[in-house]
Amino acid sequence: MGARSSATRPRAVGRAAGLGLGAAALLTLLSGCSMEDVGSKFGHFGWPGPGVSLQAHKMYDLWIASTIAALIVGVGVWGLIFWCVVRYRKRGEELPVQTRFNMPMEVLYTVAPVLIVAVLFYYTAIIQTDVDKLSKNPDQIVQVTGFKWNWEFDYRDGIGKDANTVTSTIGSSDIIPILVLPVGEKIRFEETSKDVIHSFWVPELLFKRDVMPGSVRNVFEVTLDKEGRYVGRCAELCGTYHAFMNFELLVTSPEKFDQFLTAKKAGQSTQEALIAIGENPYATTTKPFDTRRGTHSWNQGGATAAGK
């Protein structure tokens, strides 16, 4: 009887663990909360918020769902560990019944991890493919050019190198460049560098892309869904003033964006065009670095283009 009881006990433990995990998953599904609601209650589980684009929301949902799944599995495993510590603690000098193997348990802890990894891989591949997807006819095309140590944003009339620049915004040592974009439209970014590798990073977009010199270009698209001002930075160590290579993303309504482009095409500076649409003409999320680097020969273009 003792041997039979010992053999069936792991099966009971496995069933209890499965029921516990299933109950936890069911409670999560029946709670009716969105991933953002759940994440906000727990500090987003280390993720920097839900973001300001449709692509960012999908990555955020994947992160929160993966974290919840990991916590459910973790609680189940920790529960079994502590249960075994208490249930099978030493009660005397008699050696307990030895079991060489238990096929159901071995199948469980082999198949379950494989299934978990497969599910995570599947949804990661789906989200990654969607984030990297490019449309044939984006609403706006912006060429991002990095240089030591600032940014140039060219609004283009088409896709690729053969397209024409409609108007530009160029940063300088004195003025932080402001990239103005409309909410609710597909924005394509085409990145290039005049010198070394930089990295275009707006934290609220929840990902960054390297800006490569030469013919290699990183191209990606986002659809912004929240108006506001967001700090942008270079996230690749590129030289002496890398830490101060900032810009600002201003997301506004399509109507204001059209007015901004019209003012720029009419010859107004970026600051004048921002005033024309009722916006602060200067960056509010960051500030320029107080330096005399504009007088040096290695400031490659940009310092003389303040306010363009």
UniProtKB/TrEMBL annotation:
Stored InterPro entries: CcO_II, CcO_II-like_C, Copper_CuA, Cupredoxin, Cyt_c_oxidase_su2, Cyt_c_oxidase_su2_TM_sf
Residues passing through the membrane, by range: 62-86, 107-126
Protein name: cytochrome-c oxidase
Gene Ontology MF, one: copper ion binding
Family: Belongs to the cytochrome c oxidase subunit 2 family.
EC class: translocase
Domain of life: Bacteria
Residue ranges occupied by any Cytochrome oxidase subunit II copper A binding domain in the UniProt entry: 137-263
BP-aspect Gene Ontology terms: ATP synthesis coupled electron transport
Subcellular location: Membrane
Chain intervals for the UniProt region annotation (Disordered): 286-308
Function: Subunits I and II form the functional core of the enzyme complex. Electrons originating in cytochrome c are transferred via heme a and Cu(A) to the binuclear center formed by heme a3 and Cu(B).
Record EC number: 7.1.1.9
GO CC annotation: membrane
